[in-house]
Amino acid sequence: MHNSFLGDLIGKGSNRHVYECALRNDLVIKYETKTGLFHNVIEHEVWKMTLVNDLPLKKYLAPVHSISDCGRWLIMHKTTPVNHEEYPDELPRFFWEMGHDNFGMFDNRFVCHDYALNAGHLYGLSDKLTPARWGMKDKGPYNV
Ligand SMILES: Nc1ncnc2c1ncn2[C@@H]1O[C@H](COP(=O)(O)OP(=O)(O)OP(=O)(O)O)[C@@H](O)[C@H]1O
Ligand SMILES: [Mg+2]
User: Fold this and answer.
1) Helix H or strand E encompassing 120
2) Beta bridge partners of 92
């Protein structure tokens, strides 16, 4: 990624560093710090599938703007933080990592901006709701 695209670092997860986009303040740039996980690629695939097929799950996802050839860099629409009291009680069972920091607001909607680890292989890209178990980083919001 050319340095002139990268703005300030705004977030750090276990696998990705997230930067402001210096050219557009409605976008962020996600850099995958480890190889072999392909979380950017998964996010892009999920977004593309929901978009192309106009799936209801789409409204719960921060849209992906674009991805680099090998997936190391992902450009995503920026979300804004939400007060914890305002988090919904239910969300699609598709979501797996229920950390508060994986969600935010986009376009007046409550969305997930970290959906690479998801339950899509169990349930598909369904928007079926289940109680949200906030704080459950690894177990997800549902019982299997
Ligand atoms: N689209 C976005 N808009 C605004 N901030 C974001 C966006 N995506 C990520 N962030 C910020 O960057 C942080 C790290 O991003 P993300 O959670 O996607 O990384 P990760 O390495 O996959 O995280 P984890 O450790 O949860 O697996 C988030 O917790 C959030 O604060
Ligand atoms: Mg995260």
Assistant:
1) helix 120-123
2) 129
Sequence spans of domains, the chain: 3-131
Choose which residue among 18, 31, 66, 139 to substitute to test ligand 1 binding: the one with the highest number of ligand atoms within 8 A of its C-beta. Answer: 18
For 47-96, how does the pLDDT look when each residue is reduced to its tens digit (9 = 90+)? 999 999 999 999 999 999 999 999 999 999 999 999 999 999 999 999 99
Strand partners, 9: 19
Measured from the Cα of 99, ligand 1's closest atom is: 26
Please write the tens of the pLDDT for every residue from 18-41: 999 999 999 999 999 999 999 999
pTM: 0.95
Is the CB–ligand 1 distance for residue 62 below 6 Å?
yes
Asked whether 15 lines ligand 1 (CB < 6 A), one says: yes
Collapsing DSSP to helix, strand or coil, 69 comes out as coil
CA–CA separation, 44 and 40 (whole Å): 6
**Cα Rg for the chain, rounded, in angstroms?**
15
65 lines ligand 1 (CB under 6 A): no
- Write out the CATH class of domain 3-131: alpha beta
